[in-house]
Design brief:
Layout lengths: L2 H9 L11 H9 L9 E5 L4 H14 L4 E4 L11 E3 L2 E2 L2 H20 L6 H15 L4 E5 L16 E4 L7 H4 L3 H8 L9 E3 L3 H13 L4 E3 L5 E6 L4 E6 L4 E6 L6 H17 L6 H10 L7 E4 L3 E5 L4 H14 L5 E5 L7 H8 L5 E4 L10 H10 L6 E3 L3 H11 L5 E5 L2 H33 L1
Helix pairs in contact: 2-5, 3-9, 3-10, 4-5, 7-8, 11-12
Length: about 450
């Protein structure tokens, strides 16, 4: 198999959809020798912030000198972004080798009418890879929910649950309590838990942690104070279990303070279990962490901001950040949303800030039609200019034509939209910078 054939085989399982349950992944991992049982796992669930927390924890552990595997989903631009060791994505060679190993096992399961899902296959590949690569620690992001998610076969060192809001209600339940119950399903007997969940969600997690005899740390707003904020970084004071930490991050948005506090609390749990990590490792790790496509500024004059807000909670955080942390003349909002999301609530949160709306869609089969999106935008009373573009590439071109240097172009609505935008924009920006450098070099030669 070559790389193209390998990826085609993996993605062919997307047609089987999302089917929660642990029977298939348990069977598949058993035939692979249960690699998950050899891993030292930090397991991260929640609604928003999971990716940032995973990156902070991984970065801190790397600064402490450990070899760290990270399993994330979804990817933005490349499949290999899902499976990383010390910031290096899985190679084509390693992926091909692992698929050649796992494919006969999957085919045998298919014969028994136990076809695994796309996510289950990728999870098995990741766990086997991390075992073979002998990582010291593995940071695992839950795919969907928690209790019946394919990642919930691990025996973690610590569980992290970010804040919880309504999402995937058709699968996880139509109330915060039901969703919290699913996400709290990652809690294991006598394993410490760290959470930023609030109100009803917090109550559910407290109950389950008590039933599991698991120590619980709850992150409170009073522990977090933002000290400074610029367009390139933020500084926070975090009151941890052991001390007050003053940390700096390049990740934008005041909500990152909560993600950092969760990460530090998880690291402190590891420290209490004998893992050697210094205060400097914590500060340096947080400073070095990067999470592409989340409040990411990739260009200036006009500023182009990418944010993968894909649910009402994420859109609310984006709106707050735009109001508190950014100064601009006009906000040009390029919006591509998935059709299975709470679109009306997302729109009601963000469109009051927009001066120009551009409705578009990514190439995903889940993308919501822009013509229908415009109808919903107008139904919410938006009286300012609205454009319809059938492709994201054209939407970005239109936004750049409309924008002046003091405006912001914000591309948002889904991680898939942001990933596609990133793939289109970054080569253009890189080539432009390269051309500028070459022109400067030529000027120097001429002047000499």
């Amino acid at each position: 198999m070559n790389e193209k054939e390998t990826l085609e085989w993996i993605f062919s399982f997307e047609k089987h959809g999302m089917r929660l349950g642990l029977e298939r992944i348990t069977s598949l991992l058993n035939t692979l020798g249960n690699p998950q049982d050899t891993l030292n796992v930090i397991h991260v669930a929640g609604t928003n912030g999971k990716g940032s927390v995973c990156n902070y924890i991984s970065s801190i552990l790397q600064k402490a000198g450990y070899r760290v595997g990270v399993y994330l989903s979804p990817h933005l631009q490349r499949f290999s972004e899902r499976i990383i060791i010390n910031n290096k994505e899985i190679s084509s060679h390693d992926l091909i080798t692992l698929v050649e190993r796992i494919r006969p096992l999957v085919e045998e399961m298919q014969k028994q009418n136990q076809t695994p899902t796309f996510f289950e296959i990728v999870t098995a590949i990741a766990f086997r890879y991390f075992k073979e690569q002998k990582v010291d620690y593995t940071v695992v992001e839950v795919g969907l929910g928690g209790r019946l998610d394919a990642t919930n076969v691990v025996s973690p060192l610590v569980c992290v649950i970010t804040d919880i809001s309504l999402e995937h209600t058709e699968i996880l339940g139509k109330s915060i309590k039901k969703i919290a119950f699913e996400k709290a399903g990652i809690i294991k007997n006598n394993i410490p838990v760290v959470t930023a969940a609030k109100q009803d969600a917090q109550t559910v997690i407290q109950t389950i942690a008590k039933e599991k005899n698991s120590s619980l740390i709850i992150i409170e707003k009073s522990q977090i104070k933002r000290l400074t904020s610029t367009m390139t970084s933020q500084e926070f004071s975090i009151n941890g279990h052991f001390k007050e930490y003053i940390v700096k991050t390049s990740l934008l948005g005041e909500f990152q303070g909560e993600n950092i506090a969760l990460s530090i609390a998880a690291i402190e749990m590891l420290q209490m279990n004998g893992v050697y990590i210094t205060d400097a490792d914590i500060a340096d790790g947080i400073s070095a962490a990067f999470n592409p496509g989340r409040m990411e500024i990739i260009s200036e004059k006009p500023m182009i901001l990418l944010d993968g807000a894909h649910n009402p909670s994420g859109m609310k955080m984006l709106a707050i950040s735009l109001k508190k942390d950014f100064t601009y003349n006009q906000l040009i909002l390029v919006l591509g949303i998935f059709k299975d999301k709470d679109i009306k609530t997302m729109l009601s949160t963000i469109i009051p800030l927009a001066d120009i709306m551009i409705a578009t869609k990514s190439t995903s089969s889940r993308a919501f039609e822009p013509t229908t999106l415009v109808t919903l935008i107008k139904d919410q009373g938006f009286k300012k200019p609205v454009h319809i573009e059938p492709s994201l590439t054209q939407a970005i071109k239109t936004a750049k034509k409309l924008a002046k240097k003091d405006d912001i172009i914000c591309i948002t609505g889904s991680l898939f939209t942001v990933g596609e935008a990133r793939s289109y924009l970054l080569p253009l920006i890189f080539n432009k910078k390269s051309t500028t450098i070459e022109l400067k070099k030529d000027t120097i030669k001429t002047n000499n």
